[in-house]
Amino acid sequence: MSTPWRPVTGCSTSAVREKTVVDFQLRNVPLLSRVGADRSDQLRTDIDAAIAGWADAAVLRVDGRGQVLIADGRVLLSDTTGLGGEPPAEAVFLGRIEGGRHVWAIRAELPVPEEGVDANVLDLRRAGTVFDDVSAQLVSSATALLNWHDSARFSAIDGSPTKSVKAGWSRVNTVTGLEEFPRIDPAVICLVHDGADRVVLARQTMWPERMFSLLAGFVEAGESFETCVSREIAEEVGLDVHDVRYLGSQPWPFPRSLMVGFHAQADPAQEFSFNDGEIAEAAWFTRDEVRAALSIGDWSSAEGTQSKLLLPGSISIAREIIESWAWAE
Description:
Helix 5 packs across helix 6. Strand 2 and strand 3 form a beta hairpin. It is built from six helices and 15 strands. It folds into two domains: about 120 residues, Alpha-Beta Complex (Nucleoside Triphosphate Pyrophosphohydrolase), CATH 3.90.79; about 140 residues, Alpha-Beta Complex (Nucleoside Triphosphate Pyrophosphohydrolase), CATH 3.90.79. About 20% of the residues lie in helices and about 25% in strands. The protein is an alpha+beta fold. Strands 10, 11, 12, 13, 14 and 15 form a six-stranded mixed β-sheet that branches. Strands 1-5-4 form a three-stranded mixed β-sheet, with helices on one face. A three-stranded antiparallel β-sheet has the order 3-2-6. Its cofactor is Mg(2+); Zn(2+). GO terms for molecular function: hydrolase activity.
């Protein structure tokens, strides 16, 4: 296993440091956490009012691969022509946009763009960086809800069929009447630093060489976020962390996660150990090294092919956390 950057061995907490940064905040709202539409959650239980707006509603079509049509940084919404006088049984209500227009999402083939409209077919991972706030919120919510409906058509308890209710925000067991809600799997993601100008970045075993990010893992039953941070980092790279602090969160509907961001402090003198098999290598990087990698772009950048360090794309909260630490005052 090759390590393109220096490992922790030989480092000391007494080393000369550029700057002390024990605490910092996110500089920007993570891209998929942006809010641009009114969720109008009261209409989920006032179905008559929700349906009353169907005739003039906008429809977000998401195909089986999670793709949508976008043009000029906005998701393309169509009207309800050909969909009947009421929302389809599996449609989900996303809220209202400017002017009070209702927005629903359905799983369907993408429509043919109007003549003269230069549209592209993209999924949320590839389009999140160009979406406006309204589009980011609508597509993120639609992706998460439709993914859940696709996998929740039968009860996990007794196998009975379930049906969509409350405008797509829950499902009911058709035999027992038990109501189930969209499942969300919380996961922590943490930037580990030394309290000064060094940070831990790691590469998963499945990732190409030079591709590094933050440490992350799913929250276990009966576990707090902070406890999960400590456990996951110890399991993945063998470091003991302290001073765990919350930064922010972001939905990650691939298929149904919620990423909860933290930063924590560790001692660079402690040796790495890879205990769960998920991490291929990890190393401490200086702030200058991280800034240089950020300036190049991200994993998908053509310029990144010549970089010694590749970092996550802007759609992920990992990117926002890394940037916020790198440029902390």
